[in-house]
Write a structure and sequence with these properties.
Length: 720
């Protein structure tokens, strides 16, 4: 089989403690057996791997089939071992009945270098697993953190990982390592909770001044009520340890006030007990007794175990103050309470509330009273309980004390027997201690190696982070330059746009001014011609005709003035204006021409716009420079036709003498005047087309080819 490096995924396997709780809520007993299924495959090809050993610790055994699958009977919390000659053994704790999937990745042909490891899962899963194994296996817990650290993707997660690692070391009493990891956590993210834990670790490591510095740096204004209680309790612990009892009393008292106000029950219990211990050290026995009794009452409101622990402290207080009868009575109550506790849980030998210890202390209290007859049975019970629990330390002490009791009571033969048992117990304890020292050395070596690996990971991470920060700083500088250039270009573009807009507005303003000026030039020209006509009527004493002409002229002037401020007016208004104007001109030259105005009925004249006074000059030119010089009756034809969709043509055609002949008849002064008029019209059209995108077009041509050719003007208007 190919050499393998594990990329192991328990895709549906690792479920948190909630899974177990859920099974309990569903009524499934945790000790019930059930079957889990699994498969082992290569991650790239998904080819199954056969012959992989799958075994439950102390239980069932199987191996994968040719399809890479297996089934095995397990219970909740069972540990499954997955092993093969080509990769190291994998341990998996059963949390649910979900299927297990193991994927392995090929890395080379050298079988020695092939490895297997858990496929990368989430950082949260790794930390949850570390917390689960915290009190079960320090090595496993640390390993999960080591596996989880590379998956950390933020300083917050990094800080959390090292905080959990510090918690693990604190539980296993590796206080120097706990300090190291709490400090690393704080270097990533500084939090009050971790500072409080660091101060506690310093205290347990006998670094009392360092502990005080941390507590003093934490200002109470920035702390929650619970954190304030922990800080004051920590300060009290340090002061009590360095025999500054007045400061310890003050700190414990402050903490007790806050805990009482905020009803933090378990802290009220602890602080009563600790404050009582300090008062007892100071010789204030009565105050101490009241506080220790209070701690027992408070603990009883929490649970039985806490109550018994406080009773043990109260009994120790009675022993120190030589109140042996009261101590004996208290410890007898404690033994009865222990019987209740042991119905639901197992009490570890390290606990202060074991039966062997309480029986020993009752026997010791009787011994101190020289009541050896009462002392011996309790010391024997202590030895019996110690044998059951394999507690050699208590057995040694109880056997020694029993030997002394037999000696003091004069029973030397029993004293000889118990002394021999004492010597034997001491030898057994010596051997056990040697084993524990050896195990502790291996444990320390193992966790030191893991800690070194984790420290290396953190160093590598900081180095990588430093390189990344340098790279990011360089990128930021480059981005700043790029953004500056972009900003400069944007400002230039904005400036250019604003200038363009300003120029356009100025041009528009100039055009509007020019149009206004041109219109103002057109009106006097028209009025001058009209007044000449009135003057001719008056000079011929044709008063009636003059009055009629003036009446129509006033209407025309009113319409011209109304439209004089507009760039465009509706075509219908312009038609009304030219009808009125042509009527006036015909009135003056009745014997010179006739006229017609035709409008295509299919044209919606209200939909079209036209510059005011645009057509009038062309009609005026047709009459004054073409038709009035004609010898016979002339014709002026004005028509409005549809050229195409949205476009109309306004044609002003006459059969007058034509442009060429008319020009030859003009004086030099008239030619200049005419040129100025036509130029005015051209300018207006040009400006309007600039402003309104070629809305108006004017074409002038001869009208015919024989005789009086006349003139034809075509004005093209586009719909808006």
């Amino acid at each position: 089989m190919k050499n393998l490096k594990l990329l192991l995924a328990l895709l549906l396997g690792l479920i948190s403690q909630l899974g177990v709780v859920a099974q309990q809520e569903l009524g499934k007993p945790l000790d019930a057996s059930f079957e889990v299924k699994g498969v082992v495959v290569e991650s790239n090809s998904f080819n199954p791997i056969s012959g992989v050993n799958v075994q439950v610790n102390g239980g069932a055994y199987t191996s994968t089939t040719i399809s890479g699958r297996f089934k095995i009977k397990v219970k909740y919390e069972d540990e499954i071992m997955i092993s093969h000659k080509d990769f190291q053994t994998i341990y998996y704790t059963v949390k649910s009945n979900d299927d297990i999937r193991v994927e392995v990745e090929t890395v080379g042909d050298d079988s020695v270098s092939s490895k297997i490891a858990i496929k990368e899962s989430s950082f949260k899963t790794a930390i949850d697993s570390a917390l689960y194994y915290k009190k079960i296996s320090a090595e496993k817990s640390i390993q999960f953190i080591a596996d989880g650290l590379p998956k950390s993707n933020s300083v917050q997660q990094n800080a959390e990982a090292f905080q959990v690692l510090g918690d693990v070391y604190m539980y296993w009493k590796q206080y120097d390592l706990a300090i190291t990891n709490y400090r690393i956590s704080l270097n990533n993210v500084s939090t009050t909770d971790v500072n409080l834990k660091l101060a506690k670790a310093y205290f347990y490591n006998n670094n009392h001044q360092e502990s005080l510095v941390i507590y003093d740096q934490l200002k109470t204004n920035n702390l929650s009520e619970n954190q304030k209680v922990i800080r004051y309790e920590g300060l009290g612990d340090v002061y009590a340890m360095i025999n500054e009892n007045s400061k310890a009393t003050k700190a414990y008292t402050e903490g007790l006030k806050i805990a009482t106000t905020n009803k933090i029950q378990f802290k009220i219990t602890d602080l009563n007990s600790k404050l009582g211990t300090v008062y007892n050290t100071e010789g204030e026995k009565r105050k101490a007794e009241v506080l220790l009794e209070n701690s027992v009452v408070m603990a009883a409101q929490e649970n039985k175990t806490r109550e018994v622990e406080q009773k043990v402290k109260f009994a120790d207080f009675q022993n120190v103050n030589q109140s042996y009868d009261e101590e004996i009575a208290t410890r007898k109550e404690i033994i009865k309470d222990i019987d209740v506790i042991e119905k639901d849980s197992i009490i570890a030998n390290e606990s202060s509330i074991t039966k062997q210890k309480q029986n020993y202390k009752i026997g010791n209290a009787y011994f101190l009273q020289k009541d050896y007859k009462e002392a011996i049975p309790y010391l024997e019970k202590s030895i019996e309980e110690a044998d059951k629990k394999e507690d050699l330390t208590v057995k040694k002490d109880a056997t020694k004390k029993l030997t002394d009791a037999y000696v003091e009571s004069g029973n030397f033969s029993e004293a000889k027997k118990t002394f021999d048992e004492y010597v034997k117990t001491v030898d057994q304890l010596y051997i056990k201690k040697e084993q524990e020292i050896s195990q502790a050395a291996r444990f320390n070596k193992s966790i030191t190696e893991k800690q070194n690996r984790i420290t290396t990971l953190e160093t590598d991470r900081k180095l990588t982070l430093s390189q990344v920060e340098l790279s990011e700083e360089k990128n930021k500088r480059q981005q700043l330059i790029i953004y500056s250039l972009i900003g400069g270009l944007f400002l230039l573009a904005l400036t250019a746009y604003l200038m363009y807009k300003y120029i356009k507005q100025q041009k528009l303003a100039n055009n509007l001014l020019a149009l206004k000026s041109l219109r103002s030039q057109m009106n006097p020209h028209f009025i001058f011609n009209a007044l000449n006509s009135v003057n001719s009527f008056i000079s011929t004493n044709d008063e009636r005709t003059a009055n009629k002409y003036l009446s129509d002229f006033s209407k025309l002037m009113r319409a011209v003035l109304e439209n004089s401020e507009e760039d465009f007016i509706p075509l219908q208004k312009e038609i009304e204006l030219i009808e009125l104007y042509t009527k006036l001109e015909h009135f003056r030259f009745k014997d010179k021409f006739e006229y017609t105005i035709d409008v295509d009925k299919t044209i919606d004249i209200e939909a079209y716009q036209i510059p005011p006074m645009l057509l009038q000059p062309y009609i005026e030119n047709a009459v004054w420079h073409g038709l009035r010089y004609k010898e016979d009756m002339g014709l002026l034809h004005i028509s409005i036709t549809k050229k195409q969709k949205g476009v109309i043509a306004i044609t002003i055609a006459d059969n007058g003498i034509g442009r060429k002949k008319s020009k030859s008849l003009k004086t030099e002064n008239q030619q200049k005047h005419n040129s100025k008029g036509l130029g005015n019209i051209k300018k207006r059209v040009s400006i309007l087309n600039q402003m309104y995108k070629d809305k108006v077009d004017v074409l002038i041509d001869d009208n015919g080819t024989e005789g009086d050719v006349g003139t034809k003007v075509v004005v093209i208007i586009k719909k808006d």
